[in-house]
Amino acid sequence: MKAFSAIADGLSRAIDLVAGVVATWLGRMDSPRSVRLVEDDAGRFVLEAAKPNASLSRMFLNLNMNEGRVLNAAPDDATAGLSGARVELFLRPDRFLFRSLELPGRAAEFLDGIVRSQIDRLTPWSAAEAAFGWSKSTAVEIDRIFVTIAATALAPVMPYIRAIAGTGAHSIAVFTSVPGASSEASPIKIWEERARGASEIDRIRWALMTLFVASGIAAGTAVGAFAIVDAYVQSQQDDVARQIANLRATSGAAREATLGTVAAALRAVELRKQGSASTVIVLETLSRILPDHTYVTELRVEGNKLRLVGITRDAPSLIELIEQSSRFTRATFFAPTTRSPSEPGERFHIEAIIQPLGASLS
Question: What CATH code is assigned to 26-202?
Answer without folding.
Answer: 3.30.420
